[in-house]
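Can anyone check this?
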Amino acid sequence: MSEYLVEVSHLKQYFPVRSGFKTIPLKAVDDVSFSIKPGETLGLVGESGCGKTTVSRTLLRLYKPTSGSVKFEGEEVTDQNIHALRKEMQMVFQDPYSSLNPRMTVEDIIGEPLDVHKLYKTKEERREKVLALMETVGLNAEHAMRYAHEFSGGQRQRIGIARALAVDPKFIVCDEPVSALDVSIQAQVVNMFEDLQAERGMAYLFIAHDLLVVQHISDRIAVMYLGHMMELAESDELMNNPIHPYTQSLLSAVPIPDPNTARKSKRIMLEGDVPSPLHMPSGCPFRTRCRYATEQCAQAMPELTDRGDGHQVACWNK
């Protein structure tokens, strides 16, 4: 048995896009590798369009990968075994408004995974399980016969979380689960994720824009840029000692609550625009905006190399 629950190796996800009379690949995810231990939370951050959601959906085989492999408990995830593995790997989607079926009651939405995997013998047992899951995520039993449109955003996200928990998974992909919610509700949902992990020992891949939320919930953090992994380290190590120029600029944009510290801190402004994923620069994709770029950066994409204590960086000059 592997010490890792999830192992992603050299994952690539290219989408064919028509451009004039020819088809060219849009490289949404390009050679990404990482692993997650049982009960661990890996945070995945990066700006919009960098491939975070594509990684998560490819990992769960909602998209068929162009190349690379995903292993779960040492077993490669394939089209043949994904149905059985769905019970162990679940997803909480970003938008609680579009990820719930408007024609189904809350009881049926949460109970659907139980139906698919045949996890009950009688209707009474099914209802008991659904009500127990609702209580776990902070919903009342009288909500069971209502429809999704009758709930607030935070309540809808709780319904989505209860649905993911229904099959008692070992691994949950949280795809920006709090980005559509108010700040006060975000804290409640993040705390609920932590409580559930402490109770059930699940592992998370937690995708978010807010670096402070990711630091709070994650054991390790990975930084992506244009489909590539740029840096991977322990949560506090990455926040206190960012090495990659892109990570440094991301962290410099995080608001600091103390005004005195905020005045002393220097915002690192990136020049130029994000390149199109259809026409990627050669070598390192960040080199067109990097103040340390050299000729070597244009020649080849650097590999993630360990700089000590598991702090991995993909940069020629840092």
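Reply from J.R.: I decoded it. The longest strand covers residues 22-36.
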